[in-house]
Structure to design on (356 residues):
């Protein structure tokens, strides 16, 4: 239990609550939910350039990381096709993978297929169901994908100036602008309250907000003097109480709540906003293929980790279909921008390829 771990090490409630945010990031859970301690561990394990537990920004935005991987692949002779929708994994009579069929009618033949789509899309939508064991299908259907995340991308014409650390006259970024700024987490009770509201189908009235300003470190992301602000917020239910739709009114009402909260910490923030893009859990599912909007393709609870991710007996990247591999966040060891699942899956696929 996260609360017990933090109580052992810290006395300050704001510090404990701020650390607790990394135990509930992307999870429909509160700091009091059993197993939440693992999610905190998941976010601080590993290292960046020799610094343990450190995180970094990608110069040019997150897309630059994808481009770097793409360039490395094409340099080795890979062909990359984008904007091509896969509609089915093709199987032979023996049940062995033969490639994929695209929506435009084109077929790509291959002895191996690696999918970094979610387990739900890979096995429930793209793979012929008669080729999969019933208990495996049932397990994938039962994966807990609940997600509390609404992402709001904001364009502003000046840096936010916080009451706790006002801006200097020259308007240059200060050290805290170059970090992750956590708001509405003065106590773990506040986080638990926000979680409880969402479990009843209501967007949190005082949501947890993780605010980053990537342009403070990478000025090329915005025009001179302007900035982009990334708001990772919780808790918002996928389905609203009473079956209400996540329409423009509901979206904007929640975003206004978030902006009112930021305004209390940084007066003038709302006036600085030039534009905003609101992505609720259904939006994240529709646009990015994240099941229920879950950034990890499935909850990072202890019953859905290690040997059970995505299903018992299938944590080694191979699937019930020979030649079909899972290499995304729904595979071991889970989500986060670390490439571990992809690297491990590639090694397993290469080992199998040598025997084909």
């Amino acid at each position: 239990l996260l609360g017990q771990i933090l109580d052992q090490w810290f006395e300050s409630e704001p510090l404990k609550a701020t650390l607790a945010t990394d135990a509930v990031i992307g999870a429909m859970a509160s700091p009091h939910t059993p197993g939440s301690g693992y999610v905190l561990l998941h976010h601080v394990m590993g290292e960046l350039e020799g610094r343990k537990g450190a995180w970094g920004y990608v110069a040019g935005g997150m897309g630059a990381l994808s481009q770097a991987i793409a360039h490395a692949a094409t340099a080795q002779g890979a062909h990359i096709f984008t904007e091509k929708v896969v509609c089915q994994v093709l199987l032979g009579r023996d049940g062995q993978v033969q490639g994929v069929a695209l929506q435009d009618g084109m077929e790509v033949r291959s002895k191996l297929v690696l999918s970094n789509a979610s387990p739900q899309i890979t096995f429930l939508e793209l793979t012929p169901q008669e080729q999969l064991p019933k208990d495996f299908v049932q397990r994938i259907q039962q994966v807990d994908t609940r997600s509390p995340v609404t992402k709001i991308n904001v364009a502003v014409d000046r840096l936010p100036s916080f009451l706790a650390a006002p801006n200097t006259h020259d308007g240059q970024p200060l050290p805290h602008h170059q970090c992750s700024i956590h708001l509405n987490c003065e106590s773990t009770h506040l986080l638990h309250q926000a979680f409880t509201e969402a479990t009843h189908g209501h967007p949190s009235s005082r949501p947890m907000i993780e605010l980053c300003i990537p342009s403070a470190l990478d000025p090329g992301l915005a025009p001179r003097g302007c900035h982009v602000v990334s708001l990772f917020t919780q808790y918002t239910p996928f389905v609203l109480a009473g079956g209400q739709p996540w329409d423009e009114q509901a979206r904007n009402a929640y975003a206004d709540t978030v902006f009112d909260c930021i305004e209390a910490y940084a007066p003038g923030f709302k006036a600085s906003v030039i534009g905003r893009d609101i992505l609720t859990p259904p939006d994240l599912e529709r646009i990015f293929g994240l099941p229920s909007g879950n950034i990890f393709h499935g909850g990072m609870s202890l019953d859905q980790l290690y040997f059970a991710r995505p299903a018992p007996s299938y944590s080694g990247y191979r699937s019930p279909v020979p030649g079909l591999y899972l290499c995304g966040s729904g595979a071991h060891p889970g989500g986060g921008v670390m490439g571990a699942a992809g690297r491990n899956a590639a090694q397993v696929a290469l080992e199998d390829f040598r025997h084909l």
Summary: The chain is about 35% helix and 15% strand. Residues 83 and 148 are 28 Å apart (CA to CA).
